[in-house]
Design brief:
Elements: H1 4-14, H2 20-34, E1 35-39, E2 45-51, H3 54-68, E3 73-79, E4 84-92, H4 94-103, H5 125-139, E5 140-142, E6 152-156, H6 159-171, E7 176-181, E8 186-191, H7 194-204, H8 207-256, H9 265-276, H10 282-288, H11 295-313
Antiparallel strand pairs: 1-2, 2-4, 3-4, 5-6, 6-8, 7-8
Helix pairs in contact: 1-3, 2-3, 2-5, 7-8, 8-9, 8-11, 9-11, 10-11
This protein binds zinc ion (ZN).
Residues 19, 21-22, 124, 126-127, 130 line the site of zinc ion (ZN).
Length: 326
Amino acid sequence: MDSFSQRTKAELARRFPKKRCCMKAELAAIIRASGSLHLRANRVVVLAVTSESAAIMRKVHLLLKNYFQIPSRIIIEETGRLNRRYYKLQLFGGKEVKRVLTELDVLSPGLALESGIPSELVRSDCCRAAFLRGAFLARGSVTDPQKNSYHLEIVTENEEFALGLYYLMNLCRFKVGLTQRKEEKEYLVYLKEADAIGQFLTFTGAHSAFLEMEEVRIIKGMRNEVNRLVNCETANLGKTVRAAMEQVEVINELKAKGVLEKLPAPLQELAYLRLDHPEVSLRELGELSTPPLSKSAVNHRMRKLLNLAEQFLGREGKKSPKLNDY
Ligand SMILES: [Zn+2]
C-alpha cells in the first residue's frame, strides 16, 4: 500500500500549474533539487532529472514540453541491491539544455548549476506555492499522520538551496526548521507541527492529503479523549477499591476484638456484607442488603460503623478510612 507521503506526492504531481510563471517556478525547483548536468564522451550535454515516481517524471516532461516546447526522454533504471526502480528524464543537446537552465536561472555565469533561489522566481504567492511543490515533489517526504509525531521535510545536499528553501518557507510564514545530518552530508528543511504541515499541504495544493490528515487528527483527538475518560474512571475505581479495603481492615479488627458482636444489628449486617463482598461499591452493597438500602443509607451506616470503630479501637493518629465512592 502507498504511504501517506506517496499519496501526497501523487496528488501534487497531478496538480498542473495553469500560469506560465508557476510552471517556470515549479520546474526550476525540481531541477535545482534533483537535476544534474552530464557531458557525454561525444561532447553531448545532457540534463538529467531522476525520481522514484513515474508521475513526477511525467510532470517534468509535460512542464518542459508546455513551457519550452522541448521534448525530453524518460528511461527506467533498476539500481542498487534492492532493485529499486528509478525514472530518469533526459534532455539532450547543448543549445536546449543551456536555454532551459538559463531561463530557469539554474545556470550561473560560470556554467555551473546554481542552487540558490532567485527572488524573481518566487515573487508572487502562486509561484512560491509552485516552487515549494516542486521542491517537495523532488526531495520531500511527510510522515503518516497516524504516527505519534508529525514531520515534513525536504532534503538536499546543497547548503545554499537548503538556506533558500528555509528563507522562502519563512517568507510564506511557515514555522520552519533547518538542520544538518552530518553523517550523510544532508541538509533538512522541516516542519514539525501538525498545523504547519496542514498549512503546507493546502498551500501547495495537496487538498486530499490535507483532508486525510485532518480526519486522522480528529480520530486521534477523540481516542485521546476516550483514553482520558477511561483513565479517570480507573482512578475513581482505584479509590473505591482502596476505601473498601480500609473498611474490611477496620471490620476485621472490630471482629478480632469482639466489638463487632456488640454493635447494633444494622451495622453488624453491613459489616458482614462488606466482608463477604469486598470488591463492590457502596451502592452495590445497598442493593445486596435485605431489604435493599439506598446508597446514602449505606453511606450513612458505614460512616457510623467507622466512627464507632474509631472510638472502640482508639485509632487516634491513624487517618480515618475514607468513604469515597463513585
Ligand atoms: Zn505564478
